[in-house]
Amino acid sequence: MxxxxxxxxxxxxxxxLDFIHSPACGGEVVFxxxxxxxxxxxxxxxxxxxxxxxxxxxxxxxxxxxxxxQWDIKKLAMLHAVGDKLPGExxxxxxxxxxxxxxxxxxxxxxxxxxxxxxxxxKKEFFSDGEVV
Amino acid sequence: MNVMLFGVAKxxxxxxxxxxxxxxxxAGELKAWLLATYxxxxxxxxxxxxxxxxxxxxxxxxxxxxxxxxIPPVSGx
Lengths: 133, 77
Known about the structure:
A: 133 residues; alpha+beta; Aldehyde Oxidoreductase, domain 3; 32% helix; elongated; B: 77 residues; Ubiquitin-like (UB roll); 5-stranded mixed beta sheet
């Protein structure tokens, strides 16, 4: 399985797509996590993402290793943004490709769910009313 | 200064880096010291210690040459 892992200020859906394209793969599944403009009814101006980058990349590699053990996925890309992100901007992209679609959905869901549970990245929410949480 | 703090743990302690306190020899002891020294950390759902870029069990040894991180609940994605 080919793997692209990235934690940078700017990430794009396109670079994940470009990476997972393969003539051998008929199924591509892409999850995109974007910044919402509200949290539980309160308006959000921006998010700030902080990462413990070296460990975060190491935890992302563990997720990739788990994916490779469980499914016949050909390519996996996991990208996470850091720094200030505005509503509508891309915070995270997980993209997988496989010969057929079924396992691609399963692997993509496993990768994003595990990323959110184990990868050392933190967000701060800046609300329009001035509070920061 | 081989202990790094992240996210809300950094805000509560008021610093991004600190020295491993005297007499602390395991990840569990460090966690207990942090919770006692900064009681606001007790409000968090979890507090993990990482040693050399991997999550550490409470019994794992920590020393002055290790890269140690204090990890509050993660919230990526």
